Amino acid sequence: MAIAQERVEEQGSPLVVDLDGTLLRSDLLYETAMAFIRGQPLQLFKVFGWLLKGKAALKEGLATRTQVDVSVLPYDPAVIELIQTERRNGRKIVLATASHISLAERIADHLQLFDQVLASDARRNLSAQRKCDLLVDLYGEGGYDYLGNSMDDLVVWQHAREAVVVNPHAGVASRAKAHGNVTQVIESNRAGLKDWLKALRLHQWMKNMLIFVPLLAAHRISEPQQLLYGVLAFLFFGLCASSVYVLNDLLDLADDRHHQSKRRRPFASGKLSIKAGLTIVPILLGTAFIGSALFLPWQFSGVLGAYYLLTLAYSLYLKRQMTIDVVVLAMLYTARIIAGVAAFSLTLSFWILAFSMFMFLSLALVKRYAELREARSRDLMDKTRGRGYYPGDLDMISSLGASTGYLAVMVLALYIHDSATAALYGLPHVIWLACPLLLFWITRVWMLTHRGQMNDDPVVFAIRDRMSQVIGVLFCVVFWVAA
Prior knowledge:
Elements: H1 2-11, E1 15-17, H2 28-39, H3 45-52, H4 55-64, H5 77-88, E2 93-100, H6 101-111, E3 116-120, H7 128-139, E4 145-148, H8 154-158, E5 162-166, H9 172-177, E6 182-186, H10 193-200, H11 213-217, H12 224-251, H13 253-257, H14 266-269, H15 274-295, H16 298-316, H17 324-344, H18 350-377, H19 394-416, H20 419-424, H21 434-450, H22 458-464, H23 466-482
Parallel strand pairs: 1-2, 1-4, 2-3, 4-5, 5-6
Helix pairs in contact: 1-7, 3-4, 12-15, 12-16, 12-17, 16-17, 17-18, 18-19, 18-21, 19-21, 21-23, 22-23
């Protein structure tokens, strides 16, 4: 201990910085876990095997079997600035973390801010008391200053000279201040309701209005009981979809952080923690399925289950497969219409299925075109991250997308001559007026996409765009007059 005290007197108290939740607005244990599940979903059982051997073995297994790009991780700029100031003053900076040593060293090499790295390995999980014991052994009692954020850091602060609390977990700041050595509390990353609304993508719930299409087509929209079923189906499908959006964001962290706009998403930017996301996913999913089982026909729960399994397959694998991804996206849109058929106990219409598949395949290709155009604008020629396409595929995608959109119009035209249509509409030939409206809208969407003005999901764009709203109203008027 005397030797350690002499070292402190010669060099001054080092500034010791925690990594997870402090320097980094994330947790590398969860980061590597999501990367492992994304890359090796069929090897998930290995995670439980490592966990049975202890947390150190779990971190070792995940760190050595995943690739995390440390250059795009969400570092806290306030902590970076504090470290840089202390370095300029000639102070020794130490990174002390419970994360695995291989990750900690890669981060230290990337940031070039640390003189020493202390971290977990296969035998030792360097957190809480173990971290405290090591720091006291190296620098002496009260021989270091410490930046941390969690309950595990309380014991480390207790033996530090000065404590800096960074974005603390609930109740941590007050307990740390009880030690009497807290000199600063940094609050630079507080998540709010807006972040959660963005993560749950409530604006995407507008897609669930497709659930009402079968009811409109059957001319039964005025029945109160059916409307109630529709509202419940809208709600439960939205909860299921939000759980999917959150899980998809957690699996796509690496890709999103390399994207110009997606890197600002709540989980990719570190505004919301991965742990919070993993907590909300089963809550949303459980509420959706329990609610649908209690209040709606069992067929709706079946469609909801099929939708969830397909989205899970899409997130884990299918979204990276050329052509398969857009077909699956079209199926996911169409699933909302099928869910409406199930909720209202109606008969599934061939015409609605054919129209929706062609229409939504066109809109799925709009999404891919917009992504690839953005990549080409940045002079990127390689395959886009997380997708199966190259920027050079733009011409083919636009050709396929426009043609499938026009095929949807042809299906609508053929629908006019169906015998069932004559039974539903007094003036079925009036529906012909809907064809030029739809042709105009599809052409306009593709022209705007070609010009780089499609910056949103095309269905969400249609709901927000004034011209699309006008065309939608005229489209409905045509069918009303025809009826």
